[in-house]
From TrEMBL:
GO terms for molecular function: glycosyltransferase activity. Residues 26-218 form the Glycosyltransferase subfamily 4-like N-terminal domain. PANTHER family: GLYCOSYL TRANSFERASE GROUP 1, GLYCOSYLTRANSFERASE. InterPro entries: Glyco_trans_4-like_N. This is Possible glycosyltransferase.
Length: 661
């Protein structure tokens, strides 16, 4: 898989990760490594923490791990995440990286490599853009990054007293310092990537700006050349496969308890444990001796016909192992973010049985790409397994639906490439300070600015102006014809027939309403619609489901707010003609539609076009009865709606308000 863009343009990228897949094959390590492999031919480099000091030669801070690959001493501070290598100019790490000229630094963690490394890389590579892929919940969760308390209970988020219970009362000061260090580090990042909407929402609740976070799937392994049908198609046997590590939060004990229950109904049920061998069930060798003892007892009770210990595996063995199971089973007890095993199962045509929890419930669509069960409940998992046995068409139907789902490898790579193109090289020039502008104007805009479309540039403009309130068209992609249609209908049935947007140019969380042509951000719903594909029955089910109802409720509320603002004489409605669709007739029709909805005589409707040489740059003309036409110096680039010309916008809005007074 080659990372070069369609025009052949290469990208020089330094990847920084908490581990090297030579020693650790967790999801985060593999996500970073696959991107490195995709862009390696373009000069990418890979920097990771060593798994332990024992790997490093005595007295060595930095060692080569391959061409343009380095390992550094791992961080020894689980709370402060200090960096253990010298970060002085001329030090061993600085010298190792001296020949690099990265346009981008893409970080995949600060755990093990340390927070201080981020600031050193900023100092050494001031011209580079900095991206950060979020893995797990290490920001909001100081205790192992899983939002799972020491007691085993799920955690809703950081609370001082709750955090102290997990890390110990002697760590109160360290917790406070940690928070400050993390805030400073995240402020140094240009943009963040989240492999799931659920993870993004947790970081948003923690305090990060959601518009600085793009939801982008981790890059999966290359798709297999062919996919085999279920291992036991046409027979009464059912083989489930577990693929993963053996630890207390993966739910393996729950899986064995559920299989034990379900085998009372189906003696031909069995489960293969991939990633688990005899040593993992030996209390004398396992890092979790109590768990190992309980698992060993269950395996002995079930017997070899019911449980097969298949041992560790490499990625090149995955296809053969997936071919031996009918469905993939997981039972994690924490808010998994974007489990790679789900991607891998879908790539190999296998539905997934998973808890209705965190990113698992986001990635697996119930009764479309798998089945969801109550978290932590072996009885409900057993009932779910029994459905696969009793309902003879259920599993073949799920397998067929998974095979119809689009593979996401090419899309994920394209989304990464577009973000890289957006943030590569030097940062944009500093924006003008709002303090330079008239406070009365800014207050007027914060009270009365109301966008109409066409893309998200006006949403980012509102953010720059300090407008925090929600607004109907703020984050919608609204073509001119679509705006005319919904205004003519009085905004009834505003969100009614959503389908997934598969164009990689668009944001990964977008759906489009087939009836109106308006594009909406709706990450969870988009996942469900994509999995439904062209299956009409599945589409009906998704549109009647909770995620779609939530979106309809949200937009009913925003429509009511919008309609209430229209009769207010001071409201400034603004449409940006990004697609150059505007003509005089269309302006008059939209003006008339707003008047029908109650817009008073003389209330301002501002249309903004890009200056074309025949009009004065950053000028505004009155066309009568509150209708105004402006020519702006430039719009933000299509794929980078946040790169607005703030000075030009404020100048135009100032002129508009002067003409309206």
């Amino acid at each position: 898989m080659n990372g070069a863009g369609p025009n052949g343009q290469s990208m020089s990228i330094l990847y920084v990760c908490h581990g090297h897949p030579r020693y650790a094959k967790g999801g985060g390590e593999l996500a970073a490594w696959r991107l490195f492999q995709a862009f390696e031919a373009e000069g990418a480099a890979f920097l990771a923490a060593a798994p332990s000091l024992a790997v490093m030669p005595p007295g060595c801070e930095v060692m080569s791990a391959g061409p343009r690959q380095w390992l550094i001493k791992p961080s020894l501070s689980p709370l402060q995440h200090g960096t253990e290598v010298s970060l002085q100019d001329g030090g061993a790490l600085h010298q190792a990286l001296a020949d690099l000229r990265p346009e981008l630094v893409h970080l995949h963690h600060y755990v093990h490599v340390g927070i201080d490394l981020v600031h050193a890389l900023r100092r050494w590579f001031p011209q580079a853009g900095f991206l950060f892929t979020l893995h797990e919940y290490w920001g909001p969760c100081a205790y192992e990054g899983r939002l799972l308390r020491r007691s085993g209970e799920l955690c809703a988020g950081p609370e001082p007293e709750v955090c102290v219970e997990c890390v110990g009362p002697e760590q109160r000061v360290d917790l406070a310092i940690r928070q400050l260090r993390l805030q400073r580090m995240f402020a140094a990042i240009d943009h963040l990537l989240s492999p799931s909407l659920f993870l993004k929402q947790r970081y948003e609740e923690w305090g990060l700006d959601p518009h600085r976070i793009s939801v982008v799937e981790n890059l999966p392994a290359p798709a297999p050349a062919s996919v085999e049908s279920g291992a036991n198609a046409g027979s009464d046997a059912l083989v489930l496969g577990y693929f993963g590590q053996v630890n207390p939060w993966k739910g393996l004990e729950l899986i064995l308890q559920a299989v034990q229950r379900a085998r009372r109904r189906c003696g031909q049920l069995s489960v293969q444990l991939h990633g688990c061998g005899p040593a993992d069930l030996d209390p004398s060798t396992s890092p979790y001796p109590e768990l190992a003892g309980r698992l060993a007892a269950l395996v002995e009770q079930l017997g070899p016909e019911a449980v097969q210990l298949c041992g560790r595996y490499d990625s090149d063995q995955l296809a053969d192992r997936m071919a031996g199971v009918d469905a993939v089973l997981m039972a994690s007890t924490w808010f998994e973010n974007a489990p790679m095993v789900i991607q891998e199962a879908f790539q190999h045509g296998r539905p997934v049985l998973a808890p209705r929890l965190g990113g698992m419930a986001e990635k697996v669509q119930h009764e479309l790409s798998g089945l969801l069960f109550a978290p932590g409940d072996p009885a409900d998992l057993a009932r779910t397994i029994e459905r696969c046995i009793d309902e003879v068409d259920l599993l073949p139907g799920l397998q067929a639906q998974v095979l119809r789902m689009p593979l996401k490898g090419a899309r994920s790579l394209e989304q990464h490439r577009r973000l890289y193109a957006r943030f590569r090289g030097s940062s944009a020039a500093a924006e003008p300070s709002l303090a330079e502008w008239e406070p009365a104007l800014l207050e007027d805009l914060r009270q009365n600015f109301e966008p109409l479309g066409a893309n998200c540039e006006l949403g980012f403009l509102m953010g720059r102006l300090g407008i925090q309130r929600s607004s109907l068209f703020r984050w919608l992609f609204t073509p001119l014809a679509s705006l005319e249609k919904v205004l003519a209908e009085g905004l009834e049935r505003f969100f009614s027939e959503p389908v997934a947007v598969t164009d990689p140019v668009m944001a990964a969380d977008m759906v489009v309403d087939q009836r109106t042509g308006i594009f909406f951000h709706a990450g969870e719903l988009r996942q469900q619609l994509e999995q439904a594909g062209n299956n009409s029955a599945a589409l009906v089910q998704v549109r009647a489901g909770e995620a779609c109802r939530d979106q309809r409720g949200k937009y009913r509320y925003l429509v009511e707010k919008f309609l209430a603002s229209v009769p207010v004489a001071s409201t400034l409605h603004v449409f940006s003609d990004f697609h150059r669709e505007l003509n005089e007739a269309a302006m008059l029709r939209i003006h008339s539609r707003l008047r029908d909805l109650g817009k008073p005589l003389g209330s301002t409707l501002l249309f903004v076009q890009p200056a074309d040489g025949s009009t004065e740059v950053n000028s505004v003309r009155c066309l009568g009865d509150g209708l105004q036409l402006a020519a702006i110096r430039r719009f933000a680039p299509g794929e980078h709606a946040d790169q607005i010309d703030l000075e030009a916008w404020i100048s135009l809005l100032s002129l508009s308000r002067q003409l309206s007074s």
